[in-house]
Design brief:
mainly beta
């Protein structure tokens, strides 16, 4: 080729009629902010549900009593995941003597299996009771759940798994292997009323004569929609 052709081949070529794409700026993914701050899913439904409970009663006369109960419930639910944190604190006094001092913290995370009603769950709870022979009990377990009823107003889930519990500051400072059988029901009766029920059975794998039961039932009535104020009646039984 000639010298002029060689010089022309080194010059940059400009393609007419073609628009170049604008440069894209880097987008950072923040798991904590995306998990905590996003409040609506792709379907427009709320992801987070939060509630706080407070109850106080007492009497003064031949006997003096004072009881206080505090609770908090945090729930995050998407199409594929469900997370729930439940805190309960109860303290009671009679004639200036403490008769109850209990704290219960329960945390459960579920991951729905795609195109299935099955889920995989992780669960942990911490229990403190001043009047037990131990200072604190920690329970950890995992397993599979099956959602028998899955509607907007109602859900019924059965679960089965295994784990262990550990009593700290008690006569048995060892990990006890346990199975777990559970059932959970949530039902929205109408716009202002809903009920909930959960029950878990923990038999000792090494000795099935030893077991624990944990059950809770509640009925909630919405009084004022503007302030989201409700009355809640609940029963909690630990055996």
């Amino acid at each position: 080729p000639s010298e002029e052709d060689a010089i022309a081949s080194d010059e940059p070529k400009v393609l007419e009629g073609i628009e170049t794409e604008p440069s894209k700026s880097a987008a950072w993914y923040s798991p904590l902010s995306d998990w905590f701050l996003v409040n609506e899913g792709a379907d427009g439904k709320k992801i987070w549900q939060r509630s706080v409970e407070l109850g106080i009663d007492g009497s003064d006369g031949n006997s003096n009593t004072f009881n206080i109960r505090f609770g908090a419930d945090l729930k995050r639910q998407t199409e594929m995941t469900k997370f729930r944190l439940d805190l309960d604190y109860y303290k009671a006094q009679s004639n200036n003597q403490e008769t109850a001092n209990q704290t219960f913290l329960d945390c459960r995370s579920e991951r729905q299996l795609r195109n299935s009603r099955l889920n995989w769950f992780l669960n942990g709870n911490l229990e403190h009771d001043e009047f037990k022979i131990y200072d604190m009990r920690l329970t950890l377990n995992t397993g599979t759940g099956y959602r028998l009823i899955d509607r907007d107003a109602s859900s019924l889930t059965f679960r089965f798994g295994a784990g262990a519990s550990h009593e700290m500051g008690g006569p048995e400072p060892v990990w006890i292997p346990e199975l777990v059988y559970g059932v959970e029901l949530d039902h929205q009766i109408n716009k202002r009323q809903k009920i909930g029920f959960t029950c878990d059975y923990f038999p000792d794998i090494s000795d099935f004569r030893r077991y624990r039961f944990d059950s809770k039932a509640s009925w909630e009535v919405l009084f004022d929609e503007g302030s989201n104020l409700s009355l809640k009646l609940s029963v909690h039984d630990r055996y």
